[in-house]
Design a protein that fits this description.
Shape: globular
Radius of gyration: 21 Å
Distance between the termini: 19 Å
Strand content: 5-15%
CATH superfamily of the largest domain: NAD(P)-binding Rossmann-like Domain
Order of helices and strands: EHEEHEHEHHEHEHEHEHEHEHEH
Number of domains: 2
Strand order of the largest sheet: 8-7-6-9-10-11-12
CATH architecture of the largest domain: 3-Layer(aba) Sandwich
Helix content: 25-40%
Number of strands: 12
CATH topology of the largest domain: Rossmann fold
Largest sheet: 7 strands, parallel
Length: 329
C-alpha cells in the first residue's frame, strides 16, 4: 500500500519505519493536512494523520477524489476527521484506540507536582540567587481529594497513581470502570459534586459533542478556589476564555495544560521567528500559576512504539483483510 504520512515529526518517523518492516511504501511530509496540502495525496492509497491535521468535510471529499481509500490515524482522538462524510464516501478510518496510558497519566502527575510545589518558580529564583521560600509553599497530596473526569485507560492509570499518593478518588464518567473500582477505592459522582469537592481535577475525556466546553464558567464557579486543574486530554473540553476568567479572578488555584483549544496553528511548530498572534494563548501563558506543555503527553518511547505498531497494524489489516478491528468509520 502506498501511504502518505502527514505531519511527520523528527521523533516519530523511525518508529513508523521500524514497525512497517517494508510492507508499505511510506512517503513522509512534515506538512499538515489542510486545504493547501491535500493535493499531495494524489495517487496514494492511504494517508496517515496526526491530531494537527484537518480532515474536515471538504478535505475528505478531496482525498476521495484523489483515490485515497484509507485514513490511518496516529492518535486516539478523531475529532479532527469528518467521520460521517468519510463513511458516506466509503473511506475507512481507523485510530489507535490505546497506547501506553502511563505516558499521559504520568505527565498529568508531573504537571500537578510542578504546579503544587512551585518547581519552575523555585528554579527561577535559584538561578538569580534568591533562596527565600516565601512564595514556594505547596500542600501534601496525601489525604487530598482528586477528581478524575474520564476513567478509561489513561484516567484509570492516573487514579492508581493518585491512590498510591494516599488520595481519595472521585470520578465522573458516563460508564463506571468496574475493573478500576475493584482495584482501588473510587466513588463516581456528578460533575457538580466532583467540582465542588476536589482539591485537584484531572481531565481524561475524549472530545465530542457532549464534552465540548464541559469546563466553562459554570463548572469553574463550582470548584474550590485552591483547586489545581489539569487537562491532558483535548483542548476543546475547556472553554479557554472562561478558564482565563477563572484564573484572573482567582476562582481556581492553578492550571496545568498539555492541550489548548486553538493549538493547531501553534503546537508542533517552531515559532522562534514567527511571533504567535493568538492573544488568548499569550495571556494564558503569561500567568505564573499556569503551566503549558505542547501536547507532549504521548512523548515516551513506549507510547511512540505503540502508536507506530497499531498504525501499521491497521494498514496491514486493510491491505490483507480489507478490514481493521480499529475502524471507527
Amino acid at each position: 500500500m502506498k501511504v502518505l504520512v502527514y505531519s511527520i515529526l523528527g521523533f516519530d518517523r523511525p518508529f513508523l519505519e521500524r514497525a512497517a518492516h517494508g510492507n508499505h511504501e511510506f512517503v513522509f511530509t512534515e506538512q499538515t493536512l489542510n486545504e493547501n496540502t491535500v493535493n499531495l495525496a494524489k495517487g496514494f492509497d492511504a494517508v496517515s494523520l496526526f491530531t494537527s491535521d484537518d480532515a474536515s468535510e471538504t478535505i475528505v471529499e478531496k482525498l476521495y477524489s484523489y483515490g485515497v481509500k484509507y485514513i490511518a490515524l496516529r492518535s486516539v482522538g478523531y475529532d479532527h476527521v469528518d467521520l460521517a462524510r468519510a463513511k458516506s464516501l466509503g473511506i475507512k478510518v481507523a485510530n489507535v484506540p490505546e497506547y501506553s496510558p502511563y505516558a499521559i497519566a504520568e505527565l498529568a502527575v508531573a504537571l500537578l507536582m510542578a504546579l503544587n510545589r512551585k518547581l519552575v518558580l523555585g528554579q527561577t529564583l535559584m538561578q538569580i540567587g534568591d533562596y527565600r521560600l516565601d512564595h514556594l509553599v505547596g500542600f501534601d497530596l496525601h489525604g487530598k481529594t482528586i477528581g478524575i473526569v474520564g476513567t478509561g485507560k489513561i484516567g484509570a492509570a492516573f487514579a492508581r497513581i493518585m491512590h498510591g499518593f494516599g488520595c481519595k478518588i472521585l470520578a465522573f464518567d458516563k460508564q463506571e470502570n468496574k475493573e478500576l473500582m475493584s482495584a482501588i477505592p473510587i466513588s463516581y459522582v456528578s460533575i457538580e459534586d466532583l467540582c465542588a469537592n476536589s482539591d485537584v481535577i484531572s481531565v481524561h475525556y475524549l472530545l465530542n459533542g457532549t464534552t465540548n466546553h464541559l469546563f466553562n464558567k459554570t463548572t469553574f464557579l463550582q470548584m474550590k478556589k485552591e483547586v489545581i486543574f489539569i487537562n491532558t486530554a483535548r483542548g476543546g473540553i475547556v472553554n479557554t476564555e472562561d478558564l482565563l476568567d477563572a484564573i484572573e479572578n482567582k476562582m481556581i488555584g492553578a492550571a496545568g495544560l498539555d492541550v489548548y483549544e486553538k493549538e493547531k496553528p501553534i503546537f508542533f511548530q517552531d515559532h522562534t521567528d514567527t511571533p504567535i498572534k493568538d492573544s488568548l494563548f499569550l495571556k494564558l501563558r503569561s500567568y505564573p500559576n499556569v503551566m503549558i506543555t505542547g501536547h507532549q503527553g504521548f512523548l515516551t518511547t513506549e507510547a511512540l512504539e505503540g502508536i507506530a505498531h497499531t498504525t501499521v497494524a491497521n494498514l496491514n489489516a486493510w491491505a490483507y483483510k480489507g478490514i481493521s478491528e480499529n475502524e471507527i468509520s
